[in-house]
Specification:
mainly alpha, single chain
């Protein structure tokens, strides 16, 4: 039973780290501060729909795009791993949180910046494609959908989560996630280099 679940667990964890559902909670609350419950609910729906559509689209067309451009999976692993490492390192720096966005009261805040790049950004797209190549379509697709459900749940229960762990706790979890993301990035570069030299 565990053997069957292993690829699903091994794809879920890196995508979970890349999505950073808990870390996005305080950012979500700051973006919807002062808006009505109806507008907040719309922002959640828009964000999950946008993030899911972009991620799933990339799952199905990502490899085709790479093949069209003549980019191998090893090339993508090295470039993607390097990008992930830069992103994670930048996010670990003080004051470098994901706050490079438009006015927080923008009507499309659920689409941008929440749906993308906060939920589904370069880290998620890169990780998803690597997981797809390593473990196949079914585990990657299921893990992606489960992670989007986790994100939806965290946004719906955002006030409760912040009340439970506090803003400091949320930031601490985010920092741990960024360190894990950096480690995953190193693993991707190592796998890519191994793939190139063992051809």
């Amino acid at each position: 039973m565990l053997k069957i679940l292993e690829p699903y667990i091994l794809t879920f964890i890196p995508i979970f780290v890349a999505v950073d559902a808990i870390g996005n909670v305080p950012l979500f609350l700051s973006l919807v501060e002062g808006v009505s419950k109806k507008a907040r609910k719309k922002a959640i729906i828009d964000s999950i729909a946008t993030a899911t559509i972009i991620a799933i689209s990339f799952v199905f067309v990502g490899k085709l795009v790479l093949r069209f451009l003549g980019i191998t999976i090893s090339d993508f692993q090295i470039a993607g791993g390097a990008l992930l490492f830069i992103i994670s390192a930048r996010l670990l720096l003080p004051g470098a949180a994901k706050t490079l966005f438009s006015d927080k009261h923008d009507k499309e805040v659920g689409i941008f910046p929440l749906g993308t790049p906060l939920i589904t950004g370069p880290a998620v797209l890169t990780t998803t494609l690597i997981m797809l190549n390593t473990y196949g379509l079914a585990p990657t697709f299921v893990s992606l959908i489960l992670n989007m459900f986790v994100v939806w749940l965290s946004l719906v229960k955002a006030d409760f989560i912040i009340g439970l762990i506090g803003s400091s706790g949320s930031r601490a979890i985010s920092k741990i996630m960024y360190i894990l993301l950096a480690a995953i990035a190193v693993m991707m570069v190592r796998s890519g280099l191994t793939g190139l030299f063992l051809k």
